[in-house]
Design a protein that fits this description.
The complex is a heterotrimer of chains A (about 1050), B (about 240) and C (about 120). Chain A is mainly alpha-helical. Helix content of chain A is about 70%, strand content about 0%. In chain A, strand 6 and strand 7 form a beta hairpin. Chain A has a 3-stranded antiparallel β-sheet. In chain A, strands 1-2 form a two-stranded antiparallel ribbon. With about 240 residues, chain B is an all-alpha fold. Chain B has one domain (about 30-85, about 105-230). In chain B, about 70% of the residues lie in helices and about 0% in strands. Chain B has helices spanning about 1-25, 35-45, 50-60, 60-90, 105-125, 135-150, 160-185, 205-230. Classes of the chains: A mainly alpha (about 1050), B mainly alpha (about 240), C mainly alpha (about 120). Chains in contact: A-B, A-C, B-C. At the A-B interface, helix 1, helix 5, helix 6, helix 7 and helix 10 of A face helix 1, helix 2, helix 4 and helix 7 of B.
């Protein structure tokens, strides 16, 4: 193994060597610089390889032939090697990125860059505190020098402010060092750590000064105005090194030095870290400059890692995995984003629309923000999971809440940025792609995914990258060049095959959901065949969502469940974002979903009492005092997915604005994930009481109110898809009600709902989508009289609304029947009444759907329309057939489910004899009903035809009334503001209170961000004063620590 | 006004911290473990009579390497910053009529400059024997250059020579350090050359060589910085 | 004796910081920082001093055998050397910045350098 010191003297020697070259030999100088950085990266990498296999062989490197503390020593362990590899590779990549700038500036700039990397490596390696100071000062000087690389005058100001701040820091650091030396007699960190108790008792102030100086080097919020200016104005490749490599080294230094202070100082580190994380993320909300936003994000992430360092007493063996995971994810993601910003000409966030036509760069962007937020399969996901669990095990709940809040803020601005890139109105010029910059960015993407794989291998939960559904989704990335139709065939094939493979393993509950997700999804995807072109981005996102869904239903432990949950959320977010006007809706969707996911995470952590490996069945044995809270948290999380009232505001927009074949996927399949989760929750946890209130009773109320309000809001909608979306809210309310009844028939009804709702909602969305495609509008009052032109769509909608409304003979009626039976055996009166009320209200909008679109007067502009495209019609017809079959023989699906539910609620099942179904209260004979209805219908139909023989055909405008002869269809088609009287009477029930509530929450966050960021006045002296003020504040606040309190 | 008050308050708190440190300070009555080790062993192991030099060049050589690099960086950066500006300024040089330096000044500086240079060289060559060393000697060298700069502002200095000197000295330092790994106990171990007799000029292994190069380097770098700063004056 | 030196050092630091944080002119700020640096160096040197002992140089006056009993701690002196040089480096850098800022802005007032904020 090459001596680790080689990293130091190779880079340094090369820097000196560059001075010997002539100034004109720039290319040679550049080549030598690259070679040197490549060599040290190679050395660091070989050490990582070597130590990964033999971790016990970490090396102490002595210098000058004497041992510490009389000479300086360095240490190379696995953590050091990994950090060195990160630093050197980042340096190498940035040097490649900076090729043009370096060639322009000459060999001196290259020498400064080399020394910068050397100093970062020195900080990581050294075990001597004064040596640490020297290397830190080298970093400061090199930073100030490199800041001059970007030739704008703003960076000059930033560099000067930086130098001012570092002067103050070095004063504190030196005083701290010398007093520590005085007390301990050594400058070696390990020696001092050994004497920690004595040090802290005699002169805690000395340690305090040392500690706080190193903390300020991390640029914590709010003492970091100078750092943000550097991030904003310096060359992005340099900011990448500063954030990724220098940040890593500084964190390493703090970690080393904290050992001297002992455990009593850890809470201080945690406090500062969490403050940084939340504060910086909050301020980032108000940013419009891309690099400044990235600067705030860097501060926040480094704060998070500092907080993790502060928790090392409870993290035990997982410490390096957790801290390292978040650190590496931050480094690669942040560096990647900075490098991407080097391709964008302007500094506004909206200028990033230049990436819109570059799918590979978009994919890079997505990978980087996924890394930062900690979405699966990236390392941050595993790290956050373990961290939250271990914190819960130590009862540090407040800390968990703060961390999750900060993470949600981060999600908000990062996804908003992505939404801007894809959806902002004005598009900037396509980003240029100089080869060296693009190579660097792609290698960062490769690094990101490699880290994802690596952390999966290292984790005890199994490698997410080994999950076949996820890999199948990733497979579509290289295939993006193919036409959409081929990809569709592949997708459908994949879904069906996976279902066939998994079929034997499903229990009946999983089978129902699995059948909806996999073959059901394939059926909806049939409609995607009508798309031509390549549909870049659709298939990976859709299949990622399906992967999440299929993994969700077979999840056996909380980790897989949660990973699947987040995967389906992300996939569906990208699908929703494809709609033309969907950006704000997609944004609120992701916020609510991830917020709910975080609540679930907290719930799982509490339930498992700190054990990250938690089989779902153990939910039954959760401790008594904790169980109700776990129930509430998990239920809330699930309900954000089913859009229960209160967290429903994302659904109408998201489902309405999505593309034609995406809305059925969302409404038909995705909502069921939440229901599945609730099933699992209720199966394992059953009834729970909190302060005497039965929580399932609360769920009952929520379901009932959702049903009522959803239906009420639907009737006022002019947009057909919005109407259907609100209807979904109501239907999910019904299902929730059925679940919350906690009896056999209630659950049977809920499950039947799952299937029914999937079929008819998908069908309705598809037909409305098809009509919208042909007419060019979604507003119902613009349509009318389309029955003659689009008969198949009409039939589909007709069957659909019959099924939804619960009118015989279709399956909705059966569902109603089961429902009434279920209620009979329960004791709840008022929620029952509400649900009953909700039923007829649904009639109102269902009628409107069919009347306004298909009946009434045909508008002039629609006279030449054809039927909806074949591929959209096909699934609808299949659904119609399904509904018919299901109406006639419901036992096909339900019999096994009924038997399965016997496991939970043994009594009150249904008897399935022959063609009649009996319950304790009555009987239901689907075939007889169908026959009766069929006979009545046929009779009436025959009479109509008979009577119609002598009917006289009348033209559309052959109507005269009140001496007026209409000549435009709009005047005779009553369609707009259809339910105005109802709005007058009942409008008060549909005030947008919830929307206003959430809007206020968001507004207040933004306002506080806008207000408080004025803290950073831009004056360098003020920043220095804030720095000292921060030091004094920490001193005052932590004075308890000084005296061992 | 508020600002001054705030600064005053913050510094008051800082003063409190310092006062605390001051009152808790118990001066040593004898050497601590590190000091004692150096006192007992530095002379034998390293062979230098000036123990501080022994520490700087040998025991804590890595710090010195960092220090040397600091100066190298600073000189490089100042060169980077100010030379770009010089090229921008050359578009309109105005010859300002300045009275030349008087004969007394010029002759005096010609007399003094070599003496100062000699003194500086003496300091760093004898770094291992008497107080002083490379950095101090180098600073003295630079002060000679400063004297020349102040008295004869038109004199032209070769940046090429200075850069060459810097790089060569730095490289020698690094190479000697690496030789220390190969031939002796570790990086920057000075015993690749014999330690000789304590108190002699040619003793203490590589220390005289290293310190001489450091002296030249530091002198060159300080001079370079001063020259660049001087060149920024509007002519 | 040592306390006086330490107190002087601390006082210099405080004076320097006060100047740096309240003066508007960049050059004055740099001078103030220099004063503060000097204070720090003074503190560094004062810590190693042992009353009644002499400099850590072995010659006829202080033979090797008596070194342990009559020498002050040499380590802080080595540290302060490094600290001084680093201080010089940063001061030079700040001066270069001041020069560039003056060329580009025509002013040496720190409160004028404010385009980058919040």
């Amino acid at each position: 193994m090459v001596d680790a010191l080689a990293i130091i003297y190779l880079t340094l020697g090369t820097a000196f060597l560059l001075g010997l070259l002539r100034d004109e030999w720039r290319i040679l100088a550049y080549g030598i610089t690259l070679l040197s950085l490549a060599m040290v990266s190679g050395i660091a990498s070989t050490w990582v390889w070597h130590l990964a296999d033999n971790p016990a062989e970490s090396v102490e490197i002595m210098t000058a032939g004497a041992s510490p503390p009389f000479a300086i020593n360095l240490r190379m362990g696995l953590a050091e090697a990994a950090a060195l590899m990160l630093a050197t590779l980042t340096g190498l990549a940035s040097t490649i990125f900076l090729k043009d700038t370096l060639l322009r500036l000459g060999r001196r700039a290259m020498a400064v860059l080399l020394v910068f990397i050397m100093a970062i490596c020195g900080i990581i390696l050294t075990r001597d505190i004064f040596n640490l100071f020297v290397f830190f000062e080298l970093v400061v000087i090199a930073t100030a020098g490199l800041v001059l690389l970007s030739h704008n005058e703003r960076s000059l100001g930033a560099g000067f402010k930086y130098l001012m701040a570092s002067q103050v820091v070095s004063i504190l650091l030196l005083v701290g060092i010398i007093f520590n030396y005085h007390v301990s007699g050594s400058l070696n960190i390990d020696d001092m750590a050994g004497m920690s108790d004595m040090l802290i008792q005699t002169t805690p102030l000395a340690f305090f000064l040392l500690f706080i100086a190193l903390i300020v080097e991390l640029k914590p919020f709010p003492a970091n105005g100078w750092a943000l200016d550097i991030y904003e104005s310096a060359h992005p490749a340099f900011s990448a090194i500063l954030s990724a490599a220098a940040g890593t080294a500084s964190l390493f230094a703090v970690d080393k030095v904290l050992a001297i202070g002992g455990d009593s100082w850890l809470p201080v580190a945690t406090g500062i870290g969490v403050l940084s994380f939340i504060g910086a993320n909050l301020f980032a909300l108000a940013q419009t400059s891309d690099r400044r936003l990235l600067g705030y994000s860097s501060v926040a992430q480094i704060g998070l890692i500092l907080a993790i360092i502060g928790q090392r007493d409870i993290l035990g063996d997982s410490y390096w995995l957790i801290a390292g995971g978040v650190l590496l994810a931050h480094a690669v993601g942040k560096a990647g984003l900075f490098w991407l910003s080097g391709l964008i000409a302007e500094r506004e966030l909206t200028a990033w629309t230049a990436l819109r036509d570059r799918p590979l760069l978009l994919f890079a962007f997505i990978s980087f923000i996924a890394l930062l937020i900690g979405l699966p399969p990236f390392p941050g996901f595993y790290a956050k999971w373990e961290l939250i669990h271990l914190l819960a095990g130590a009862d540090r709940i407040a800390l968990i809440v703060l961390i999750l809040f900060g993470a949600l803020l981060e999600t908000a601005y990062l996804f908003r940025w992505f939404g801007l890139i894809l959806k902002h109105d004005e598009v900037a010029e396509k980003a240029p792609c100089p080869i060296q910059k693009v190579v660097v960015i792609y290698s960062a993407v490769v690094a990101a995914w490699s880290l994802a794989y690596l952390w999966g291998e290292l984790s005890v939960f199994g490698n997410l990258m080994h999950a076949i559904p996820l890999l199948f989704a990733l497979l579509f990335l290289p295939l993006e060049g193919l036409p959409a139709r081929i990809k569709n065939v592949l997708a459908i094939g994949g879904l069906v095959t996976w279902f066939i493979l998994q079929y034997p393993l499903y229990d009946p509950l999983q089978l129902i959901f699995g059948a909806i997700i996999l073959p059901g999804g394939a059926l909806i995807l049939l409609a995607s065949f009508h798309n031509q072109g390549r549909r870049i981005g659709f298939y990976p996102a859709a299949l990622w969502m399906f992967a999440g869904l299929s993994m969700l239903i077979v999840a056996e432990d909380s980790f897989t469940f949660f990973a699947a949950w987040e995967s389906l959320t992300i996939g569906s977010y990208f699908l929703i974002l494809r709609g033309k006007h969907s950006q704000p809706h997609a944004q609120s969707y992701i916020l609510f979903s991830l917020g709910g996911a975080f609540l679930m995470l907290l719930g799982f952590a509490l339930a498992s009492a700190g054990n990250p490996l938690f089989p779902l069945e153990s939910l039954t044995t959760v401790a008594e005092d904790v169980a109700p809270w776990v129930f509430i948290l998990l239920a809330l999380g699930m309900m954000t997915k089913t859009a229960a009232i209160g967290v429903h505001i994302w659904l109408p927009g998201a489902h309405a604005e999505a593309e034609t074949d995406v809305s059925p996927l969302l409404s038909g399949i995705l909502l069921k994930a939440g229901l599945f989760g609730l099933f699992i929750l209720l199966i394992y946890m059953g009834r729970q009481q909190l302060y005497g209130i039965d929580l399932t009773h609360v769920l009952l109320w929520v379901g009932a109110i959702s049903a009522l309000l959803g239906n009420l809001m639907a009737i006022y909608q002019e947009d057909a898809k919005r109407l259907l979306a609100y209807s979904s809210i109501a239907q999910m309310g019904y299902a929730l009600f059925g679940l919350a009844l906690m009896n056999h028939l209630g659950w049977l009804m809920a499950l039947m709902f799952v299937v029914n709702h999937y079929i008819y909602k998908s069908m309705l969305f598809l037909s409305v989508g098809g009509v919208a495609k042909r007419t060019g509008t979604k507003e119902m009052y613009r349509m009318g009289g389309l029955i003659t032109l689009m008969p198949l769509s009409f039939i589909a909608v007709l069957i659909g609304i019959i099924a939804v409304s619960g009118v015989p003979p279709l399956s909705g009626f059966g569902g109603r029947w089961i429902f009434y039976n279920a209620i009979m055996s329960a004791e709840y009166r008022l929620p029952m009444v509400i649900i009953f009320l909700a039923g007829p209200i649904a009639f109102l909008y269902l009628f409107r759907l069919i009347h306004t679109i298909f009946l009434g007067q045909l508008k002039d502009e629609h006279r030449k329309l054809k039927e909806a495209p074949f591929w959209i019609i096909l699934p609808q017809m299949i659904y119609v057939a399904c509904l018919m079959v299901f109406a006639l023989a419901p036992g096909l699906a339900l019999r096994h489910v009924d038997a399965y539910i016997d496991n939970f609620f043994p009594r009150n099942g249904l008897n399935w004899e022959g063609l009649t179904i009996t319950s304790t209260y009555g009987y239901w004979s689907p075939v007889s009903i169908m026959i009766v209805v069929g006979v009545i219908f046929a009779t009436l139909f025959a009479w109509l035809v008979f009577v119609n023989r002598r009917a006289q055909k009348v033209k559309q405008f052959n109507i005269v009334f009140a001496a007026e002869r209409p000549y435009r269809p709009e005047t005779t088609h009553f369609a707009w503001n259809f339910f105005a009287p109802y709005r007058k009477a009942l409008g008060f029930m549909t005030q947008p209170l919830v929307t206003r509530f959430w809007a206020t929450v968001a507004e207040s966050l933004h306002t506080s961000a806008e207000l408080f960021r004025r803290l950073y006045t831009g004056d360098g002296q003020t920043y220095a004063i804030q720095l000292l003020g921060f030091v004094v504040a920490v001193y005052l606040l932590s004075s308890g620590v000084f005296y061992g309190v | 006004m508020i600002k001054r008050f705030t600064v005053f308050l913050i510094l008051l708190a800082l003063a409190a911290i310092f006062a605390q440190l001051l009152f808790d300070y118990v001066p040593d009555s004898s050497l601590n473990q590190t000091g004692r080790y150096y006192a007992e062993n530095a002379a034998d192991e390293v062979g230098a009579a000036n123990i501080v030099t022994a520490i700087i060049v040998s025991y804590r050589g890595l710090d010195t390497l960092g220090e040397v690099t600091v100066l190298f960086l600073t000189a490089a950066i100042i060169g980077l910053v100010l030379s770009r500006d010089r090229s921008q300024q050359q578009t309109a040089p105005e010859a300002v009529n300045r009275p030349g330096p008087g004969e007394l000044l010029v002759t005096g500086s010609y007399l003094l400059a070599p003496l100062i240079l000699l003194f500086g060289a003496y300091i760093f060559i004898n770094g291992h024997l008497t107080p002083g060393g490379g950095f101090q000697g180098g600073a003295i060298l630079a002060s000679a250059i400063l004297l020349l700069l102040l008295t004869r502002p038109v004199k032209h200095f070769s940046h090429r020579l200075i850069t060459l000197l810097e790089s060569v000295s730095g490289l020698v330092f690094v190479i000697v350090g690496v030789l220390g790994i190969i031939l002796a106990g570790g990086f920057l171990d000075n015993r690749i050359l014999p330690t000789g007799q304590l108190g002699e000029l040619l003793s203490a292994g590589t220390i005289p060589i290293i310190y001489s190069f450091i002296g030249l380097k530091v002198g060159a770098e300080f001079s370079s910085m001063l020259i660049r700063l001087a060149e920024t004056e509007d002519n | 004796m040592e306390h006086i030196a330490l107190a002087t050092g601390f006082l210099l630091i405080l004076i320097g910081l006060y100047g740096a944080l309240t003066q508007r002119d960049i050059l004055r700020m740099i001078v103030a920082f220099t004063i503060a640096n000097t204070g720090v160096n003074l503190v560094l040197v004062a810590v190693g001093y042992i009353r009644g002992r002499s400099a850590p140089i072995i010659n006829d006056n202080l033979p090797a055998a008596e070194a342990t009993a009559r020498m002050i701690d040499p380590l802080p002196q080595a540290l302060v050397l490094t600290a001084i040089v680093i201080g010089v480096g940063i001061t030079a850098l700040m001066l270069a910045y001041a020069y560039k800022l003056y060329i580009l802005r025509g002013s040496l007032d720190i409160s004028k350098i404010k385009e980058l904020k919040w």
